[in-house]
Write a structure and sequence with these properties.
Helix content: 55-70%
Order of helices and strands: HHHH
Strand content: under 5%
Number of strands: 0
Distance between the termini: 46 Å
Oligomer: single chain
Structural class: mainly alpha
Largest sheet: none
């Protein structure tokens, strides 16, 4: 009986751990996709190698992600860059806009 309960608990823990890894990895990918041009020079080195960040432990990746998000939040140029890119997308004539796909 105890073996069965322990096996189920271990399985639940693995699923939660897997979900945590997936969420953090998604956050890491999104930070790399945003680029580093809007970050202070001393922080840009955090975005040099995606693979090296993804190979870190879950705790290390969470800390890396937290620090990078704080840097983006503290740096007003980040928000200005996002606004500028959105403005350039939506203010462009329809012939110059990137195609949008609807559906699956």
């Amino acid at each position: 009986m105890w073996e069965s309960r322990n096996a189920v608990q271990y399985l639940d823990d693995n699923v939660q751990l897997h979900d945590s890894h997936c969420a953090v990895n998604k956050g890491v990918h999104s930070q790399f996709d945003m680029g580093s041009t809007d970050l202070p020079l001393d922080t840009r080195c955090m975005l040099t190698c995606r693979h090296s960040v993804l190979c870190k432990s879950l705790v290390d990746k969470e800390e890396w992600l937290k620090l990078l998000r704080l840097e983006r939040k503290a740096n007003p140029r980040s928000l200005q860059a996002q606004h500028h890119s959105l403005w350039s997308i939506f203010s462009a004539p329809p012939s110059e806009r990137l195609p949008t796909f609807v559906g699956h």
